[in-house]
Amino acid sequence: FKAIMQEEMEKEKEDLSLYQDVWVFAEQRESKVMPVVYELLGEGRKLAEKRQSKLCALLCGYQMSHQVEDLIAHGADVVYVADHEELRTYTTDGYSKVFHEAIKKYKPEIVLLGATHIGRDLGPSIAVKSSTGLTADCTSLEIDPEDGKLRQTRPAFGGNLMATIICPDTRPQMSTVRPGVMDKALYDPEREGEVIRLDVSFQPDEIRTKVLKTVKSLAKQVSLSDADIIVAGGMGIGNKEGFKLLEELAEKLGGTVAASRACVDAGWIEHQYQVGQTGTTVKPTLYFAFGISGAIQHIAGMKDSDYIIAVNKNQDAPIFEVADYGIVGDLYQVIPGLLDEIERI
Ligand code: FAD
């Protein structure tokens, strides 16, 4: 507590113009960089251009050098590498110490993390250590053309309003960013960048948690934000069993099932499958909406899909306003027809 108070007092005297560059946390699991990192690099590039600063990535892990070139090819001008056996798997103590020390030394102006389980844990921990603010779960980031400050927008009050937040007097300005919302960075294998290796050392027992073993869940993994084909159902499905038909279609297409919030509220399917403002934001190539009316909160989470195909009994359903292809009809007639057609091909 004393250390935090001292840092707060030092911060008060600090010259904010010393803080430059946009940093992205290059989250990895089992030595593989997470998809959200490429979205952060895409968004970070836009912010760095507006601030006329560098885009940097911070990579924490153990023997991760193979990922450095990939980060540079996706737009990082500088990759800071923290390489230590204790960083092989994520711990709040280990990662927040390394990140905080790097912030103190290199003074980034903006720090972006994915709003993943790790990002949601790490972000607040670094923000407290650095005596600065954090806006969680952002869906839009802009630089104010007048004062150059980061305007961070996120749903608030259960999605009933969008709040735009600024971090007035402290740096860095920190945000966790919702996966699946920002455009991915372009890949250019010819890009060149700088690599800076950080000094990393830990005192014995400084990291208070030890990962002894990772046990993978046997349950089906749902990764809606990365899915290329999504077969989503709404209340028009009629009951919980209706999802079996959607699962059959999703399996045939190599896709993933999803749902509207009303189905989640009805207890037909778990929350991790929910698309929308208070669920996951998705951007697949193909999005099927079966028996979904197209409420604004649902559309907010899927409108950027490449192709939207809607099936609804009601020809005036708002979902048809965003659909590329629409079928006015009963999903219980349309889906079996589709399955037969796929079988025939
Ligand atoms: P309904 O609106 O009941 O629509 C069912 C549709 O199925 C109708 O259009 C009907 O014509 C059609 N239908 C019926 N039978 C058939 C059939 N046999 N064949 C074909 N079509 C048929 N919703 C989300 O989805 N995601 C969110 O993240 C989300 N967040 C919210 C946050 C807030 C703060 C609030 C207030 C609401 C939120 N909602 C969200 C809820 C949202 O407003 C809608 O209530 C919900 O999306 C409706 O779900 P639905 O389309 O499945 O159901």
Automatic annotation (TrEMBL):
It comes from the Bacteria. GO terms for biological process: fatty acid beta-oxidation using acyl-CoA dehydrogenase. Its cofactor is FAD. Binds 1 FAD per dimer. Belongs to the ETF alpha-subunit/FixB family. InterPro entries: 4Fe4S_Fe-S-bd, 4Fe4S_Fe_S_CS, DHS-like_NAD/FAD-binding_dom, ETF_a/b_N, ETF_a/FixB, ETF_alpha_N, ETF_asu_C, Rossmann-like_a/b/a_fold. It comes from Proteiniclasticum ruminis. SMART domains: ETF (SM00893). This is Electron transfer flavoprotein alpha subunit apoprotein. FAD binds at residues 260-261, 274-278, 291-298, 312. Signal peptide: none annotated. GO terms for molecular function: electron transfer activity; flavin adenine dinucleotide binding; iron-sulfur cluster binding; metal ion binding. Keywords: FAD, Flavoprotein, Iron, Iron-sulfur, Metal-binding.
